[in-house]
Amino acid sequence: MPNRSADWSKFWELVKDTKFAMFTARHGEGALHSRPMTTLNGANERADVIWFFMSRSSEPVFDIARDADVNISYANPAKDTYVSVSGSARIVEDAGLKKKFWSPGAQAWFPGGVSDPDVALVAVTIEQAEFWDVHTNKAEKIYELAKAAMTRTRPNLGDHREVRHS
């Protein structure tokens, strides 16, 4: 039986080093549309929610109002780590949380400050996540790929796991 706690720890370990995510939602007539967003979660916010700031007047906020199902993807090619998250997005009205997550980076996007009425705090409740951590070097990858081709098996290039919140 897999260790769910270890899997979630590994998930957050991979996400913490990849600050920017591609936030994908259904747009307009149903086409998927992805946009880069900054993840707000710090070391103390590693539960089942990923946080973002968005403009209330922006398309992503309108998109999640129509359909709350979203995907968030992280890629860190330098470390060969990849994460895909499926979840449900919602706007959270909490001035204290906005202040907690506020940063100079947020100030650049919202010059009116944390109390700017255009600032929307978006919570994505994680339903399931899948991650890949290719922890082999280039020579090992080539060897594994060649071995797999010769033995007609799949190469073992690292960890691949799927975790769900119950």
- Taken together, the total number of domains comes to 1
Oligomer: single chain
Helix run count: 5
The helix content is: 25-40%
User: How many extended strands?
Assistant: 7
Mean pLDDT over the residues: 84
Class from secondary-structure proportions = alpha+beta
The CATH superfamily is identified as Electron Transport, Fmn-binding Protein, Chain A
Tell me, what's the shape? globular
Termini separation comes to 16 Å
Write a structural description.
By secondary structure, the protein is an alpha+beta fold. It has one domain: Roll (Pnp Oxidase, Chain A). 29% of the residues lie in helices and 39% in strands. It has five helices and seven strands; from the N terminus they run αβββαββααβαβ. The chain has helices at 4-16, 59-66, 95-101, 104-109, 138-151, and strands at residues 20-27, 31-38, 49-55, 69-76, 81-92, 119-133, 159-164. Strands 1, 2, 3, 4, 5, 6 and 7 form a seven-stranded antiparallel β-sheet that branches. The two termini are 16 Å apart. The model has no long low-confidence stretch (mean pLDDT 84).
